[in-house]
Structure of Cystathionine gamma-synthase:
Amino acid sequence: MQPQTRLTLAGQQTDSSYNSIVPPIYQCATFRFEDVGLTKGYDYSRSGNPTRRALEEVLADLEGGADAVATTSGMAAVSTVLALFDHGIHVICAHDCYGGTERLLSLLARQGKLEVSFVDLRDLQAVEAAIRPNTRLIWVETPSNPLLRIVDLDALCRFAKAHDLLVVVDNTFLSPLQQRPMDFGADIVVYSTTKYLNGHSDVIGGAVIVRTGELNEQLQFVANAHGTIAGPFDCWLVLRGLKTLPVRIRQHEHNAMAVARFLAQHPNVERVFYPGLPSHEGHEIAARQQKGFGGMVSFTVKGGLEAVHHILRSTRVFTLAESLGGVESLIEHPATMSHASMRPEQREAAGITDNLIRLSVGIEATDDLIADLEQALAYEPATVAA
Ligand SMILES: *Cc1c(COP(=O)(O)O)cnc(C)c1O
């Protein structure tokens, strides 16, 4: 069965009492024993919960992994993965990774728990030069945030295997319907389910999916030990969101392509970053390793910060807010919002200029989105200053 079909059936077998078509929310901390030493499969909800299990099974199935753990946030997923490793390992991480991941890795490095190097993973020579005797894993994000740079997963995974390193891919900017890193050899995939997988901007959640049973044993142990697991109601919401993932993704991508094409021909737009455009530097690799180009579009504008402020204040359909992957379109300014915690020189090195705007393109009517951007971009670059 295709993923689209599997998703509609997901979780239907959870309720053995009354066969409800939707998994019940087992909102309970503990489970009654049938007899001394005898349970019906669950004893305590940190260790296991049927609603969470239903979500984990769907995620592992979609990703092609051995198993999964649903966590309380995307950052809890990152923490759980890092907790799999011994003290003192060295991590090679994408130089343009999610800000929260950079913050956590840098914190753990300051605390002496691990070592980290931030490297442009598109450059395998640079990755090779960064390897230390204690290097254990490469942390990848593709497409990256906010410039949607693409890392060649096939090349990177081959490189990692040759050097006996594990590959972790944060796949949050896409979904397993568009990119399955394990098909290229990745060992672990993490998500912020807050974004596309839940898709309705009403949950903070995350997930870790592992390729092998051996990694899964460690994962289940560590998630239970650290208690980073998601609550039943949030898992139920993510399961509900997942059912419509295929149709949402189709509309996100249809709209994002239309928005990218519109922006690319607009006189007030300097540059558009969307992997679906042939002009994007990573287009060919994205076309090879992704089934779709995603719903995120970034662009730079003429007229500097004043123009940016004018646009951010003018849109009516695109709402000024951080986050991404929900049904509603969002607009934000990386330099002062999502990437404000980076030092200015870090931002500059990452190519995040002050005139860069990021869009999370939602599932609204395409024409409404284009019309909204059209009216917001209708300014004279020379006279936009307030
Ligand atoms: C949002 C995000 C995270 C963190 O997820 P939370 O659910 O906010 O904790 C991690 N990685 C990426 C790429 C993200 O976009």
